[in-house]
Amino acid sequence: MPKILPTVIKNLFRRPFTVKYPKVRREVPEGYRGKPVINREKCIRCWMCIRACPDRAISINKETRTPMIWLGRCTYCGECAEACPTRAIRMTREYEFLDQYVR
Fold first, then answer.
1. Which residue, 84, 95, 86, is CA-closest to 29?
2. Quick one: which of 35, 46, 50, 51 has the fewest CB in 10 Å?
């Protein structure tokens, strides 16, 4: 207990690290991997994104023959964007859509 006491006293007078989200929003850091977006015009339908996805979050839309990303299954690892030869998939910095997929 005596070892912890100086740390407790020091932190009593600091501001909290957390913010009152959603009223206060922090700036998204550079390199943050948010929602993946597909540019369907750049897509050459090589399906490398499907093979690269470890979560099987990408499937083929049978009507349009284009990839679809299931955001509820996606872990935002960015493997699909790295695998795409035409850079048709990019990771945005968007994160506020997540409440739609969390139960």
1. 95
2. 51
